[in-house]
Amino acid sequence: STFNHTTTGFALTGGHAVVIQCSDCHKGTVLNTRTDCIACHQVQYDGAKDHKAQSYPTDCKICHNADNWLNATFNHSSTSFPLTGVHATTLCAQCHTNGYSNTPTTCVSCHQTDYNQASNPNHKNLGLAVTCGDCHTTNLGWVPATFPIHSNYFVLSGAHSAIGTNCVLCHKGNYASTPNTCYGCHADKYNAATNPNHVTAQFPKECQTCHSVTAWTPSTYNHDSQFFPIYSGHHKNTWTLCSECHTTATNYAVFNCLLCHEHSNKTNVDNEHRGRSGYSYNSVACLNCHPRG
Question: In 10 A of CB 248, how many CB atoms?
Fold first, then answer.
């Protein structure tokens, strides 16, 4: 005999199409037979690894098809938590430890231990936010990581932005006391500079006075055009150290014109300027009248 089962609203496809006896499913009656999978396949559900223990849904069609139980899939993207990165290869039971209902979706709910044990940088000591997605992706090993609020501490611009994802280059494993001055990180560049020799000339250590964060060269400091001619005119080759004029090492705005042999004798300088309006024996007055040396 034949019967077009499709007319019942339950088409016989896949494994169902090869069922020989109607009674395999209908159990003696064709009336009010349930069409949900679990009605016939409770035994398979109960015998499957972890299904009962972890309260898997009993709507088998979520993961299985009518062809074969073993070809099970689950479109996690249909949930509020798509699986990306290393999550896509993680066993279900590693996340769904307490069943499949109300599983938390915040990173820290699964990764509190990773947060607590992080040392590069130490997340707990620095009080970093537990919203892991602010800095991390779902890639294996948590790397590469970004730190979008870095500008709150130090603006990453120019050459610094190019190494912004390689934190260890600057922090060297210590994130709590990393210097934020140029010299703090670039003392070796300062000490090795030869054109001019920064150490010998006792240049100030505020690198940004001359340099930009894009590159060390070209530098923008031009003493002759911006301030006072020391590489040309009467003062060319008459000095060796910056400290000969800039006597306060921490403040190069302070200068002294009265230390060299021509000007150190106040009596002689007073006599030379006798009758000159505005003259006084101090460095600021010298510059006011002799701005080009």
Answer: 11
Q: Can you tell me the distance from the alpha carbon of 288 to that of 95, in angstroms, rounded to the nearest whole number?
A: 76
CB 107 within 8 A of CB 82: no
User: Model's pTM, two decimal places?
Assistant: 0.47
d(CA 201, CA 188): 16
The helix (H) or strand (E) run that includes residue 37 is helix 37-47
Look at residue 44 and give its three-state secondary structure: helix
- Digit-by-digit pLDDT tens for the chain (293 residues) are 788 888 888 889 888 888 778 888 888 778 888 889 999 899 999 998 778 877 788 889 888 988 888 878 888 888 889 999 999 988 887 888 877 778 899 999 999 999 999 987 888 887 888 999 988 999 998 888 888 888 888 899 999 988 877 777 888 877 777 888 999 999 999 999 987 788 887 888 889 888 999 998 888 778 888 889 998 998 998 888 888 898 887 778 889 999 987 889 999 999 999 999 889 999 999 999 999 98
Beta carbons of 204 and 196 less than 8 angstroms apart: no
